[in-house]
Amino acid sequence: MVVQDSMDAPGVPLEPFLHQVGGHLSVLKYDEHTVCKPLISQEQRFYESLPLAMKRFTPQYKGTITVHLQKDSRGHLSLVANPLKESRGPFKVSTQSAAVAIWQTLQQTTSGGGALPLPQWQHTQRAHSLKESPATALLRSELHLKAHVPSLVEDVKGNQTERRSFNPWGLHCHQAHLSRLCTEYPENKRHRFLLLENVVSQYKHPCILDLKMGTRQHGDDASEEKKARHMRKCARSTSACLGARICGMQVYQTDKKHFLFKDKYYGRKLSVEGFRQALYQFLHDGTRFRTELLEPIQRQLRALLSVIRSQSSYRFYSSSLLIIYDGQETLQTPHGSNVVKVDIRMIDFAHTTYKGSWNEHTTYDGPDPGYIFGLENLIQIFQDIQEGE
């Protein structure tokens, strides 16, 4: 859809979300309490028909917005959101145009709210107008990034990841998207994005564990090649034997005043024992093990397990589970007890299916056995850690 008359309307400049620890497409910051992501019809319909019992375990759905790329007089690009006033049916954002738009967001200098300090690109043009091949444009872009943020590039490739003050995964996602850019720049197109609650906005130093849940990751609409690829990933990782694998995490280290990071490649290589040790590491702040977090985490996981068991026909293929707590020490009440804030949230429902869902390929009976298997194992591992096994 091409829109000409809204390009000059005031909007909200979008910034990279600094606490993205997993995923392959960037999550963007709309405001302090809201993030946005490219709209996928199946995910939108899930949020719009969400069972009441599940709402406490998912981000609050805040509607949709239109997003477009905006170029200023100097040729600098920004990704700008305009609230969607009209009521429209959902439609699917193409993977290619979304990748172009999201990558361009990272090419601007963002400001405020601790945004990622990336350089503004001085000569952002269509690759064909610069008479560059996509490969040449990619090389030029990577060299430009390396000249300005060498530590971020190194973070993705080496152990120095653990010594940086913010998560480099978002940059890694954007660099991957760059290789998919096409020569036609969709400057006059607009796209629909979902608005969702920023579930870590209340935390000073959000410690986040992103777990890919279930024993199956491919959706019903996956091609045979994609299905085979995801099945291999599950078989070679803890997804097959535990129903969960680590897709990313960040843990605040109070002794060094920075975050420790792990990505999905780290998670794929873990054995069962390695997975258990990673959960232990997730609760260690560099000085001590946060034993006070174990009980509330287990309590919320059990509550979620009860909810999932009650949802017949749902299959949460390729969705993730976030476990969140604050890296800042717990506060004490006037009575001397500690206030511990822990959050458990399900995210990413692009491949979730249920009876009555749009474009469903198969209707399933009963609750999701793979997700339940993963939750049961998580609870058991946290219990074993608590008991010192």
UniProtKB/TrEMBL annotation:
Q: Name one GO biological process term.
A: locomotion
Keywords (A to Z) from UniProt: ATP-binding, Kinase, Nucleotide-binding, Transferase
Q: Name one GO cellular component term.
A: cytoplasm
Q: Name one Pfam family in it.
A: IPK
Q: What class of enzyme is it?
A: transferase
| Keyword Endoplasmic reticulum carried by entry | no
Domain of life per record? Eukaryota
Does the record's keyword annotation contain Nucleotide-binding? Answer: yes
According to its UniProt record, the EC number is 2.7.-.-
For this UniProt entry, the molecular function terms from Gene Ontology, in alphabetical order, are: ATP binding; inositol hexakisphosphate 6-kinase activity
Family as reported in the entry's similarity comment: Belongs to the inositol phosphokinase (IPK) family.
Protein name (record): Kinase
